[in-house]
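Re: weekly structure request thread

Next one in the queue (1088 aa):
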Amino acid sequence: MSSIGSDWDRVESFSSFSLKSPSAGSSSSSPSKYRKLSKVKQLPPADKDPSSATTSKPIAIKDVFNPSAPSSSSGQRNNGWDISITQPSILAPTPTDDVSTLPDDVSFKKFLAGSFSEDLEPHIIAHDKNIVSCMDSHKVPWGVQYEIARGVTEGIWSWDSVEAKIPQLCGSNSEKAHKVRNVMLDKIQPPSTSGQSVWQELDREQDAIMENKGRGLGPVGPEGSENTWYGGQIQQTAKLVGDKGNYHIRLEPMENKRSYRLARFLGSRRILQLKIPHVLIYEENKQLKAFMQHKFVLLGRIFVPFFAKDHAVYLVETTEDYERCAAEWAGDQFRMSFKDIINWHNPLHLNADQPINKYATRFALAFSTSIPVLEFKEDNIIVIPDKTDTWRKPGKPPAEYTKTDGCGFINEAALKIIARFLNYHGYPVAIQGRVYGAKGLWILHPTNRSPEPKIWIRDSQRKIKYQRFVDRSHLIFDLLSVSSPESSVSLSKQSIINLSNNGVSDTTLIDIMKKALIEEVKPLMKWQGPQAMEILWNFIDRMSSVSRTRLARVATSMSRALGLAGQAWRGEEVDIERNEDTQIESEGSNDIYTGRASNGAPLTLSEYVMELLQAGFHPRDSSLLKEKIRYLVETTIKSIVDKFSIPLPESLNAFIVPDPLGVLKEGEVYYRSSVPIINSETQDVFNVLTGNVLLGRYPVRLASDIQKASVMAVDRPELSRWVDVLVVSTQGEKSFASMLSGGDYDGDKVFILFSNSLLENFKNKPVTPIPPNFMDDNFQKHPIRVKQFAERVSALAPREAQKAFADVLMFDIDDKKFGLYSTWQDYAIYEYGYEDSRSERLAYIFNALLDSSKTGDRLKPGIFERDQKQFGKSIPDFLPSRAGKPYIFHTLHRAGKAAGDELLREYDELKRETHDLKENVLLQPYNAAANRVIQLYDESKKSTLAEERYSMLAGEIKRIKECVNVAHLAHKRVLAELKRVESSSPTKKPRGKKSYQRKSDPMTHVYELYDRQVDDVFFFQNVDEIKASFAYQLDLRFGFDVAFRELCIMKAKASPQGIAPTTRSFDEAKAISSTYVKAVTRHSASNA
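Done, posted below.
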């Protein structure tokens, strides 16, 4: 370890920066060399600016757990340490608790001493005074009350019809919530039990609320717990409807998709997520913000807007009630006031120097989808300075001079507990998360061997300041994602234009595209061989990540932590960090999203094809399967040729981290994979990258955003523990990550390209500095700070002051416009060139808007309109521009389209060699039933008994056919309507924010008609088979649209190898092993 750089000396003087300095007798398991450093070196290095030393002082210690402190509520809320305390005492001291901690300003103290929400005007979501009183007196659980209110907001029933039904709805959520609709509508049939997991989870959370021991927060104690349950896993969602300021709120089904800190702390039932259509944000922003300056009434409870994010506003329940009395049986005594919730998360008096808009954006930390994995002792949370050795000016160093920006340390003991908690095979060396008001990435500590979990937080990671002692919730590490071996990535339009500009020839890029087309499409045409269908199934699975997607559906909020979903750059307009919590949503049901329609058919094309294959269908004989595979071929070609998403095997994706030991020289990087890497160009197998590589980070907007780096050629044992992360040097003037699209180390991922064809001619471009007056010329001045805001509004009437504060919290309800700037920069690149100052200016604006939800930056008035006029134009097809050279995407598209068309012709030629007759095995059930009726008709002429049997069977088959025919007519009407809508829609849809809202299935009514029970059928025991067979006979598409599952079962039963009975959950957990694929591929090749 003799080669460790001087930065490590500073890191090891942790005791001087800890939240609580260790006692004199404390021991350390670090080597004696570093123990000596920590004892001797108590001051920042001489080369650092003296002002930076102020950030490294220990946090002031103050006991705020005072049971005699005044309370804003009569209830007692437990802090999780089995100590009942009055509500304000679990927070950092509020102005009424200890004014000595506040800035010496009367108006500021006046603002903090007042209410933050009580004087806002109420807006009714759903409420009836008498019904609410009746439900509370009968102790109707919250989930049932919510479902009743939901029916009212949907207009399915009115409050007048509720009171008489209340006695039937008493019990637990899991017993009664799913019955609400049937009881209210007087339906006789048994209620659906789907979505029961939501109501069971809601009961568990309610038990935790009533227990009042903080169990919903997650594992208790630093050693973890065998009970890994945590709360906050239910989402109460609603949708804003209306326009021109005339809005109302419609409740939607509760969901069970993710968990975040605020929901775990308060309980899921205390938060309402209001989804807002993008058109309202874009066209009615002022009216929308004015509407959110209300407090909202749901069943007598007051919900106040708390935070806005990703087209949604999160409202929290407070201690206020409206025409209702608090009920202890429901846990109302454990609610918190709006002010207390604010100060629990981001204490105003401790963060008074934050810009007010940035203060509002800090609320995002409480809403990150996460898993509570570990509770630290407060003494084991240690604050340390960043490495800023090359910044010698006064004041806070800029981000590019902070060489550890966003990255701290965590010891091996903590990582092992996290690994056990999540059942990892080994512990990860880098984890992304939130703890103690900090966010970012934490990597394995180089030397600490303490058996107690410890974490070291950089100054750059601290976003919210707290005083000791904090609520237990702030000591729990909320895990977002972990380092893991990553698969290859795809080139995109952003990376392609950069590579082209920096020396990679058009011919090289065309060759890469053609190679990708062959590798992605050709396997879809291999239908011959003993196990050809199994190989085809496996290829589609890998190509479309079907098994991974299925697992992610099961894992829900744990997907990212398990490496099933990460910070993928989802398209050219999507902000990675802002969309880290995005989930696909489904309407009209509180079921967990299954990826299937009501008829059992998968919703995704790849999964649909796989299930046809595993049922025994073969493209040689099935016209449906042939068409589906052709569409898969077309989709793959379009993705590569039209969207320029080109898979590149010689690539990786990884967290970027600063060198923890200081051994890398300037410009060097190190990457060691925990699994072997195969270079498809050379067939070499290796774990450590050597030689040159290209490094980039999305968004790639400037010529310098991809850099060629020299990877060290010798494997250093010192760094071998840091696997599956890209370790970069901390030497040089500026942060290495800042050269890659202005990145940092708080969880940014970089792509690593090691294709020789790309490396051969790539030339680095120097980092272009932002013009000196760029921010002043294009963006509004930095907003006022929290203290200044408080001073200004303290002179207002209480309601006006509270509306002003509500407007601040709703700061992020805005159209960021970065998607449009992405498009406009594309046009500027085409017209003027990649390195033209106009293109670079748009890139800087795009990047600033991308981070605006964190920084609070907003464009100056008039800037958007001016840029829209100059750059809001379409790129003409295949026409030259002023840039003086052919546009690379025109060149690529021509070559790619020609190659893609050739592959489609090859596929169509393959199709002509097959036959398209309907399958007898699917026709047989109906034909057998019809033949039986015909046979009885002949026999009926011979005896009265036979005539009666014929009459009964003929009636049964007629009723079965009538049921199917009614659904068939509805199916034809739906198809006609879909065709009409498609033909009337514009060819090009306007560009805008991508929506992840899954629309309701237009075939739902058809499924309901088809699934109706056929009454009075006694002789035919296989009604479902007969219905499916007749539907298939009427029309192939109709048959599979309404009876996909039944037709697949019938086909599988007819297989010579037989059928393997299995449940859906078992089937979706399976995958074909790579060993099997190798064996059958070799066998197929030898028999070819």
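The two ends are 58 Å apart (CA to CA). The CA atoms of residues 143 and 451 lie 44 Å apart.
Next request, please.
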